[in-house]
Design brief:
Blueprint lengths: L1 E4 L5 H17 L13 H9 L3 E6 L2 E10 L20 E8 L6 H13 L2 E5 L4 H9 L3 E7 L5 E7 L1
Parallel strand pairs: 4-5
Antiparallel strand pairs: 1-2, 2-3, 3-4, 5-7, 6-7
Helix pairs in contact: 1-2
Protein name: GNAT family N-acetyltransferase
Organism: [Ruminococcus] lactaris
Keywords: Transferase
Length: about 160
């Protein structure tokens, strides 16, 4: 597997992956996190344009995608009901998903991001038990609660 930046012409592949991810999440008790439309194509195109959208490729096929950026993320400036493991510079991962064809693809993506910065923050919905298990399995520690710009609550994790 290899990680590389997403190309603009791959937008439709990502849109399809996220459609499948929403179906998977809903069928596993998490219908609210991404609803029926998140992330919108414009968000994905903005991620690509800003250079923060990545894909995981195996045998010339995109099998996973995620947002990665180093630096302050407004969502993580305040944390409630806990605290971050440290206040050192960090990277963030958002909107991670895989197509489910290659076992371990999401872990591969998380490890790639962690190796880039050595201090990684991420959040997920309380109902996203699959993601919580993935984070636990990959050495992330629960840190507390953060709130998105729209007021939605998320549980926050960090790996150092």
């Amino acid at each position: 597997m290899e990680i590389r930046k997403t190309k603009p012409e791959e937008l439709n592949i990502l849109i399809h992956m996220y459609e499948n991810a929403r179906i998977f999440m809903a069928s596993h008790g998490n219908p609210l996190q991404w609803g029926n439309t998140y992330p919108a194509p414009q968000i994905l195109m903005d991620d690509i344009s800003s250079g923060n959208s990545y894909v995981c490729v195996e045998h010339d096929k995109i099998i996973a995608t995620f947002y990665y950026k180093e630096g302050i993320d407004d969502t993580y400036v305040r944390i409630y009901e806990g605290q971050w493991l440290n206040e050192a510079p960090y990277g963030v991962v958002h909107r991670i998903t895989s197509d489910g064809t290659i076992r371990g693809a999401a872990s591969f993506c998380l490890n790639w991001a962690f190796n880039k910065c050595g201090n990684l923050k991420i959040d997920t919905h309380r109902d996203n038990i699959v993601m919580q298990h993935l984070l636990d399995k990959n050495g992330f520690k629960y840190c507390g609660v953060v709130y998105l710009e729209n007021g939605s609550e998320r549980i926050a994790y960090q790996k150092v």
